[in-house]
Design a protein that fits this description.
The complex is a heterodimer of chains A (405) and B (79). In chain A, 74% of the residues lie in helices and 0% in strands. Chain A has 405 residues and is mostly helical. Chain A has three domains: 167 residues, no CATH class; 83 residues; 133 residues, no CATH class. Chain A is globular. Chain B has one domain: Non-ribosomal Peptide Synthetase Peptidyl Carrier Protein, Chain A, CATH 1.10.1200. The chains are: A mainly alpha (405), B mainly alpha (79). Chain B: This is D-alanyl carrier protein.
């Protein structure tokens, strides 16, 4: 049976381009063939979840049904004029319950537990929770069921984002863009996909497939020889090699997803903006996995601070922002998975951003005494890069292998 | 108090700067506003102008300059 995982090899792009051709021609002539688009999505989703992956497919269907019932029940509740906080909390807890189960499952034993989980569940949850929150705030008045399913199951971004927003998606998905705009979409889409080839299939391949296993072997060998914390120069090499691999692989994937979206006349937001030239950690999170960090900013950080300020839980503004950073990044850590190194990765970034804020406040106060020139800026970029790479070493889970296995 | 005055007052309090001569400057790019300050701004706007601006309403592009904020507050007021 044919099973087609998105963006895995160059041949895939030929297949998808041919399949998208009717849609592309339609959009070029100002028409959006929605039935064809639905058919396309259905076929490619089927090819993604068929064969040995059918168990995942069944779970995806059950998940979508569940979220639909939840979202429209909540919408009905809001439209009846009520808006109790506990109902909202209950709805959000229910919406993240499947994801929680998927994250817990790897830590349970048994045959059933090993089957739980399906591709895309982490990213789908962002979309459903966003819609619930915006229904409560009435920034989304009515969720259109057809738009909602197209939004959730939008094929190019289903497996790993970028995370779009309902209102943004809605603006694109019903109309065909103007001819000029669509030509620009095609131009950019093509560029993104080719940039993605370079990133994922060439640079990411060199770092991830050719070099990383070698460096890993060396780091384990030298680490065990050195004893103690099993540190070695090879481990430093692993840190940089993994960081490069992580960026080029994920940024490459994201470029594919955005590029394909553009072909379909949907301007999915970008995920990366030159993260390694960040001047500080705050800057970094405005450039790295942006749709994820912006989601956390808008739906965790700002909501938490809004709630805490309104109810005067923490009066000191600096303390409050520090608490909010901890909450924000801890949840991000848990979202990545329930292992020590993801949680530590979250705490590490929270601390980094808190320290960064303290420094920025200090700098503002002593603006005259602290030099600012090209060298200090280069040093800031160098420092940020290394702080970030160290966090990726944690994130990689390699320390877990090195220390505990 | 008119909207412009109220908004500028709040921004002055938050950023420590009088922004009346930079009505079209992007406050996020210049680092004068961040998420924290934004939340505070939304709460103060709620208190002083009577608008309800939930966090979901907040979109950085639409609230990035003093003029845009005033425009946004006025459109929310007329709803």
């Amino acid at each position: 049976m044919i099973n087609l995982q998105p963006y895995t090899n160059p041949r895939y792009f030929i297949i998808i381009l041919v399949a998208l051709l009717p849609l592309i021609i339609g959009l070029y002539y100002g028409k959006r063939f929605k039935t064809y688009e639905a058919l396309f999505s259905l076929v490619f989703l089927f090819l993604m979840f068929d064969g040995k992956d059918w168990i995942q497919g069944v779970q995806l269907i059950a998940y979508i049904v569940f979220q639909f019932v939840l979202t429209f029940a909540y919408q009905k509740y809001i439209k009846s004029g009520r808006n109790k906080t506990w109902v909202f909390c209950l709805a959000v807890i229910l919406a993240i319950a499947p994801l929680t189960l998927v994250k817990i499952a790897p830590h349970m034993h048994g045959k059933v537990a090993s089957l739980i989980g399906f591709m895309g569940v982490s990213y789908l949850t962002f979309k459903t929770v966003e819609v619930l929150m915006e229904l409560r705030d009435k920034t989304i008045q009515t969720v259109n069921p057809i738009t909602y399913i197209r939004f959730l199951l939008f094929y190019p971004t289903l497996s790993s984002g970028p995370i779009d927003r309902y209102r943004r998606f809605e603006k694109d998905c019903d109309k065909a863009p103007e001819r000029e705009e669509y030509i620009e979409n095609l131009r950019l889409g093509t560029r993104y996909i080719f940039q993605g080839f370079l990133y994922k299939f060439i640079i990411g391949y060199v770092f991830g497939t050719l070099w990383l296993p070698q460096v890993a072997k060396a780091a384990i060998l030298y680490g065990h020889a050195n004893g103690g914390l099993r540190l070695s120069w090879a481990l430093v090499g692993y840190m940089y090699c993994y960081s490069m691999y992580l960026f080029f692989d994920f940024a490459g994937y994201s470029l594919f997803a955005v590029g394909t979206s553009y072909f379909m006349g949907i301007r999915t937001p970008m995920n990366f903006n030159k993260p390694f030239i960040s001047k500080n950690i705050k800057d970094f999170w405005n450039r790295w996995h942006m749709t994820l960090s912006f989601w956390f900013r808008d739906f965790i950080f700002m909501r938490f601070t809004f709630f805490a300020m309104k109810h005067k839980l923490i009066k000191n503004r600096i303390r409050l922002s520090q608490a909010a950073y901890l909450v924000d990044f801890l949840i991000m850590g848990f979202w990545h998975g329930l292992t020590w190194y993801y949680i530590v990765y979250g705490i590490y970034h929270a601390l980094a951003i808190i320290i960064n804020d303290i420094w920025l406040r200090f700098k503002r106060k002593h603006r005259k005494q602290i030099p600012h020139n090209k060298f200090t800026e280069a040093f800031a970029i160098f420092l940020t890069f290394n702080v970030v790479c160290l966090s990726f070493l944690l994130f990689s889970g390699f320390l877990d292998t090195l220390w505990f296995h | 108090m008119d909207t412009k005055e109220a908004v500028l007052d709040i921004l002055n309090e938050l950023t420590g700067e009088d922004l009346s001569d930079q009505m079209d400057d992007n406050l996020f790019d210049s680092g004068l506003l961040d998420s924290m300050a934004t939340v505070q701004m939304l709460l103060e706007l709620q208190e002083k102008t009577g608008i309800t601006a939930p966090v979901s309403e907040f979109n950085r592009d639409e609230w990035s300059t003093p003029n845009k904020i005033i425009e946004k507050v006025e459109s929310l007021r007329n709803e």
